[in-house]
Amino acid sequence: MTGIRDLGRLEEMMLRLPDLVGSPLSINALREDLQVVHKTVAAWLDTLERLFALFRLPPFGAPRIRAVKQERKHYHFDWSLVADPAARFENLVACHLLKWVHFEQDTQGRDLELRFFRDIDGREVDFVVLEDRQPAMLVECKLADRDIDRGLRYLKIRFPNADAYQIALSGQRDYVSLQGIRALPALGFLRTLT
Questions:
Q1: Positive or negative torsion for Cα 123, 140, 114, 133
Q2: Counting Cβ atoms within 10 Å, is residue 163 exposed (0-12), middle (13-18) or buried (19+)?
Q3: How many C-alpha atoms does 107 have within 13 Å on its Cβ side?
Q4: Cα–Cα distance, 94 to 127 (Å, whole number)
Q5: Is 40 strand, coil or helix?
Q6: How far, in Å, CA of 36 to CA of 108, rounded?
Q7: How far apart are CA 117 and CA 152, in angstroms?
């Protein structure tokens, strides 16, 4: 364990973190809010990750896409802490994908990583599963049925061999778009992660 002296500020950070789920986490913004140094916030986040309170995903960046490469997204192992329905759903899917990635690594020896995508033009994909450092699965989360997300279309065009899904929490539609992206209810997708 690490020596944490300012439990009050750590508690403030823990109360703030669920509101930031689903967005790249700025350590500098947290540092300013809590009025502590960058190194302290980074150490607290590392400690919370080691205690399995949260996990962080690095961004996916490849030479042919203009991806951001700095800030990571974080998710809580207890997604019920997240108040916003869209962020809570994204957090739930993150936990299931992480569990599936770890299961496949442990039982099949697959070289998998869970990441996210965001580029400098504002296009995003919630989750990118890499296999042997190449995109194998793209997943975008929505609360309800919607047209295929532009970020998902953009990434699918650049990585046509990756399986691409847009899942909806309360969605009913199940179809494959012209780009080869499958839109389906979340439950149907999550059942495939066995």
A1: negative
A2: middle
A3: 7
A4: 8
A5: helix
A6: 43
A7: 9
Query: Which pair of structure tokens corresponds to residue 130?
Result: 């890499």
Task: Please tell me the distance from the alpha carbon of residue 123 to that of residue 66, in angstroms, as a whole number.
Answer: 10
DSSP-derived letter for residue 154 is: H
Q: SS3 of 169, please?
A: coil
Please answer whether residues 100 and 127 qualify as being in contact, where contact means their C-beta atoms are separated by less than 8 angstroms: no
Residue for token pair 């350590």: 27
Q: What is the pLDDT along the chain (194 residues), one digit of tens a residue?
A: 456 677 778 888 999 999 999 888 888 888 888 888 899 999 999 989 999 999 999 999 865 555 556 789 999 999 999 999 999 999 999 999 999 999 999 999 999 999 999 988 889 999 999 999 999 999 999 999 999 999 999 999 999 999 999 999 999 999 999 999 999 999 999 999 97
CA distance 63 to 147: 28
